[in-house]
Specification:
- It comes from Anser brachyrhynchus.
- This protein has 915 residues and is mainly beta.
- It folds into 7 domains: 125 residues, Sandwich (Immunoglobulin-like), CATH 2.60.40; 98 residues, no CATH class; 117 residues; 112 residues, Sandwich (Immunoglobulin-like); 99 residues, Sandwich (Immunoglobulin-like), CATH 2.60.40; 120 residues, Sandwich (Immunoglobulin-like), CATH 2.60.40.3210; 182 residues, Immunoglobulin-like.
- It is 6% helix and 50% strand.
- The strands form 16 sheets. Strands 11, 12, 15, 16, 24, 25, 28, 29, 30 and 31 form a 10-stranded mixed β-sheet that branches. Strands 1, 4, 5, 8, 9 and 10 form a 6-stranded antiparallel β-sheet that branches.
- A hairpin with a 4-residue loop joins strand 13 and strand 14.
- The chain is rod-shaped, with a radius of gyration of 63 Å.
- The structure holds 2-acetamido-2-deoxy-beta-D-glucopyranose (NAG) (7 copies).
- One 2-acetamido-2-deoxy-beta-D-glucopyranose binds next to strand 39.
């Protein structure tokens, strides 16, 4: 029992015991029960207020109650049915006004919204109760005090003796006004000693004493110094044995004011409360030898119950020889459940306020009435809470019911993701909460949260299923004790609303592109390629592009990247694949794979440069996972790559090295080689990439390829052009050619013209240029007529051989490969038609053949000399490249006095005529 100066009453809901029969009830109601006045303070009225209770005496002074004053003066304040406050005053309480068999008690209640009791409202309640007749001895065992009152009887003989002389008495005791009786002292009988206390000392020690017209009263708090614990039939009693001395007129009289109250005796077995009270306790019956029960009755909340009522509630009251037993099933009508917490766990206790009245008569003390009030609270019992998930998938709302709770529980806080918020604050997090009340004095809480609230954890499970998890801790407070407990609510709803990321891939000439459209489940998925996490930092290192604008993830990987896998090599290109995996950001579990394959024939793979240098890049194939790119070689195994990466090897070499093979035909030279890989100790290559460089005279030539079986692969050839030139020089030294701006070149009759035919590329020293026919025409078109032959099959024209001179070509600064050049000199007589020198422009043309200086079986062996009458072509079954070169325009003048601007005059010299 707790009574503090200020009672905080926090109440929710409505009063259970409320009766609405007489209109709206006031804040307090009273009831006379046995020798008590009970005043109930209604919860609904005093809800949430700070209270202070006082007893008001007859002169109107309010005595504020605290625990000590209450137990000394006969007051009890307790909760009834958990939320109402009940005030009980004994008939003989300090401030009650007793008149005959009626006692009147007045209380004052102050209620304020603040603990300092400012602006308190004051409520007075006064009520009178009739009680009687009084038994000679009445004992009350309240929850906070023991009380005994004994009729004061002046023996008959003494009465007769004193009845005549009231005045004398006043004279003898002047301080004793109006001859009223008063207590003089109390003597406590303790085992070791007798201790006498004067009234004032007894008051100071917490005892309550009074004398009324008819009775002597002693009230003892359970914790008073002179109480002793005694056992009777296994039950412990608190007892105070005392004699009270009082003055009446000129006499001092003494009464025995022993009081005995049981402090235990309650057992719980088989869902039953068993309350045992031994009868005729020694301390109350000293000297008596025969006893007779006059009345044994019991009830709840000071209401006596008839045998019929007890039976209907399944109570059992049995009165045996020396003991009274009351059995009440736990949960029976009359009591109530309240919520309780043990080790943080939710449970309940059953509470019932029983009372027993035992009246007996014995041969020494006459009639005794013993009233025992027992507030019983059963031990803690765990009560499981159920969490029901009624989530509404179509409305996308988590709807969870948590229950069942008793009405003394209130939801106050929610802890969401580690943050504690009050119920009103939780609304801002999308939480909606309300109570559902049930008829049996219980309730449940409904919590609703939209699926898309930030605190709802979404998780992708499989296929199109996502789970939504509500994970919230509910914090409750229990009224009126303010105990707290919390309930973890974790509920899961599976919804088919997952959208997986999708991808679109494409390739351009040099890159593989993958565009991933994010779904709603992949926020934390990370892109990986070949075990590498794709990050903006790694993008720089591995030379790919990565961008994510929130809805799309775009990745571009260049064709030659270690992120790509090369599946095969084919004439039409290299099949490259990008395999991207999205992994869970936490568990790294594979969630989704995307692949894209493209065939590339990028120009960089092979390059055939004019100076005869070849760049070839070989790629590692997936099926040769152990291939070490640095060990790739060319036909000549000494030719190693000049640049290697994890998946590529690039070689740089000249066409006349590294075992390169040559082939000729009428329009081109083909250089062939291959990149090969040998496993150690194995002579046949596991990897063979064939490639060619094709130098053609006309670049329109298309080349046919054949696919070879593995392990040999080949790629489209690299193209180069076979370039020829026919230049005019100013003199025999062949050091000063006519430049473009100097054309048309003007020459006079008899003057010599120096011509040079050159193979410009490829710069392969193993090639030789040989002249076939050279001739001159009037127009740029080499086939136009008339034609003046200069060389035929590489020989000077027989008709005017003295006019054409072939010059040997030697190595010089300008001439690295003399075999690539042919020079000859022509005199200007050759081009006279009749007697008239040519008035038109002249163009020179040569047809050439390219052949080999270091003959291979398949190569054409060059004729070193002019061999008239023999056609070179007939010499070989292998065709060789033929080309043509033409010069710029040349004008012929008759005399060297003619100005350059003057047109040449018409002459009619026959062809081949002499000057
Ligand atoms: C004793 O009882 C009388 C009558 O009820 C009451 O007026 C008086 O205040 C009481 N005195 C004490 C000290 O309790
Ligand atoms: C939530 O569940 C409660 C209890 O089952 C139900 O009464 C209520 O209609 C539900 N609300 C929604 C929005 O589904
Ligand atoms: C509820 O939260 C408030 C403030 O966060 C805190 O003061 C209070 O103790 C909490 N109550 C319970 C029952 O957890
Ligand atoms: C619920 O949340 C708490 C804290 O936020 C966390 O420790 C716990 O693991 C979560 N429980 C579940 C089942 O997700
Ligand atoms: C992200 O990029 C994609 C494709 O590049 C485009 O369609 C989309 O509109 C972009 N979204 C935003 C938010 O910029
Ligand atoms: C041919 O040209 C390339 C590119 O200009 C150069 O790297 C290479 O060294 C040259 N080769 C020779 C033999 O000069
Ligand atoms: C010469 O060889 C190339 C490449 O092998 C071929 O494409 C071309 O047709 C051949 N030319 C002739 C005239 O045979």
């Amino acid at each position: 029992m707790e009574l503090s100066l200020v009672l905080r009453l926090l109440v929710i809901g409505i009063s259970i015991s409320e009766t609405w029969t007489q209109g709206r009830p006031g804040p307090m109601s009273s009831e006379c029960l046995e020798n008590f006045l009970c005043i109930t303070l209604r919860a609904e009225y005093f809800e949430g207020k700070y209270l202070s209770l006082s007893a008001v005496d007859q002169s109107g002074i309010a005595w504020e109650l605290d625990e000590a004053l209450a137990s000394q003066c006969g007051y009890t304040v307790t909760y009834s049915n958990w939320n109402n406050i009940e005030f009980r005053a004994s008939a003989l309480s300090c401030h009650s006004h007793v008149e005959k068999d009626t006692f009147t008690v007045t209380i004052q209640v102050k209620a304020s919204h603040t603990p300092d009791m400012k602006n308190a409202s004051i409520h007075l309640k006064s009520a009178s109760c009739h009680y009687g007749p009084w038994s000679p001895r009445e004992l009350v065992c309240e929850t906070n005090f023991m009380e005994v009152s004994v009729r004061r009887d002046v023996p008959k003989t003494v009465k007769d003796f004193i009845q005549d002389e009231p005045e004398d008495q006043t004279l003898a005791f002047p301080e004793d006004k109006s001859g009223e009786a008063s207590i003089w002292q109390v003597v406590f009988h303790q085992p070791e000693e007798k201790r006498a206390l004067l009234v004032s000392d007894a008051w100071s020690a917490g005892y309550g004493l009074n004398i009324t017209d008819t009775r002597i009263l002693l009230r003892v708090p359970y914790n008073a110094a002179q109480t002793q614990l005694v056992k009777a039939q296994g039950i412990t009693f608190s007892t105070v044995r005392s004699s009270t001395f009082y003055k009446q007129q000129w006499m001092i009289l003494m009464v025995d004011t022993a009081v005995v109250c049981p402090v235990d005796g309650v057992d719980y077995t088989n869902k039953m409360i068993i309350w045992t009270v031994p009868k005729y306790i020694q301390a109350l019956c000293t000297g008596a030898t025969s006893f007779k029960d006059v009345l044994v009755e019991a009830g709840v909340n000071l209401h006596k119950l008839s045998a019929k009522e007890m039976a209907s509630r399944k109570y059992v009251l049995s009165n045996d020889f020396d003991v009274i037993t009351m059995k009440v099933p736990i949960g029976a009508e009359g009591g109530y459940y309240k919520t309780s917490v043990s080790s943080g766990r939710h449970g309940a206790r059953y509470c019932i306020n029983l009372f027993l009245e035992h009246q007996w008569e014995d041969n020494k003390w006459g009639l005794t009435k013993h009233t025992i009030i027992k507030e019983i609270e059963t031990p803690f019992e765990l009560v499981d809470l159920t969490v029901t998930n009624n989530s509404n998938l179509s409305a996308r709302i988590m709807n969870v019911t948590v229950g069942m709770f008793l009405l003394d529980v209130e939801l106050v806080n929610l802890t969401i993701e580690g943050v504690t918020v009050t119920v009103p604050e939780a609304v801002q997090h999308g939480y909606r909460m309300y109570e559902i009340r049930y008829a049996n004095q219980s309730k449940a809480y409904v919590i609703q949260v939209p699926f898309d609230a930030p605190s709802i954890k979404k998780e992708y499970v499989r296929d199109d299923v996502r789970t939504y998890t509500l994970n919230v801790t509910l914090e409750f407070i229990i009224h009126p004790t303010s105990e707290t407990f919390s309930v973890l609510v974790v509920t899961l709803s599976a919804v088919k609303d997952a959208v997986l990321p999708s991808a679109r891939g494409f390739c351009d000439e040099n890159n593989v592109h993958l565009h991933i459209t994010h779904g709603n489940v992949d926020q934390d998925w990370m892109p990986f390629i070949s075990g590498r996490h794709l990050t903006p930092e790694a993008a720089q290192k591995y030379n790919y592009n990565l961008s994510d604008n929130g809805t799309h993830l775009a990745i571009s990987v260049p064709f030659l990247s270690s992120l790509l896998d090369y599946e095969d090599i084919h004439m039409s290109g290299v099949l490259a694949s990008l395999h991207l995996t999205l992994k869970d950001g936490v568990t790294f579990a594979n969630k989704k794979d995307f692949s894209i394959s493209c065939r590339f024939s990028p120009s960089e793979l092979i390059q055939c440069l004019p100076n005869g240098t070849v760049f070839i890049t070989a790629v590692k194939l997936v099926r040769l996972a152990d291939l070490d790119t640095s060990l790739l070689v060319l036909s000549d195994r000494n030719c190693k790559p000049s640049l290697v990466t994890e998946k590529t090897a690039t070689f740089k070499f000249n066409v006349n090295t590294c075992g390169t093979r040559r082939k000729f035909n009428s329009t081109s030279i083909t250089y062939e080689n291959e990149v090969v890989y040998f496993r150690p100790g194995n002579d046949s290559p596991v990897y063979k990439l064939k490639f060619v460089c094709l130098y053609t005279i006309k670049q329109t030539v298309d080349v046919q390829y054949e696919t070879k079986k593995n392990p040999s692969s080949s790629i489209k050839p690299g193209f180069g052009s076979l370039d020829l030139s026919l230049k005019l020089f100013k003199d025999k030294s062949y050091s000063d050619p006519y430049q473009e701006l100097e054309f048309p070149v003007v020459k006079y009759l008899k003057e010599a013209l120096y011509l040079e035919v050159e193979l410009l590329q490829p710069a392969d020293p193993r090639l030789e240029l040989n002249l076939e026919d050279c001739w001159a025409t009037n127009s740029q078109n080499q086939d136009s007529l008339p034609q003046w032959p200069i060389l035929i099959n590489g020989c000077e024209n027989g008709k005017d051989s003295h006019r054409t001179v072939i010059h040997k070509v030697n190595y010089s600064n300008r001439v690295k490969f003399p075999q690539h050049l042919k020079r000859f000199e022509v005199t200007m007589f050759t081009f006279i038609e009749g007697t008239t020198p040519l008035q038109k422009q002249l163009y020179f043309h040569c047809s050439v053949v390219i052949c080999s200086t270091t003959p291979q079986p398949s190569d054409f062996l060059c004729q070193r000399r002019c061999n008239p009458g023999k056609h070179r072509r007939d010499h070989s079954t292998v065709p060789q490249p033929h080309g043509q070169a033409s010069s710029g325009a040349v004008l012929i003048r008759k005399e060297n006095t003619t100005s350059r601007d003057e047109l040449p005059t018409q002459q009619n010299l026959p062809p081949g005529a002499l000057e």
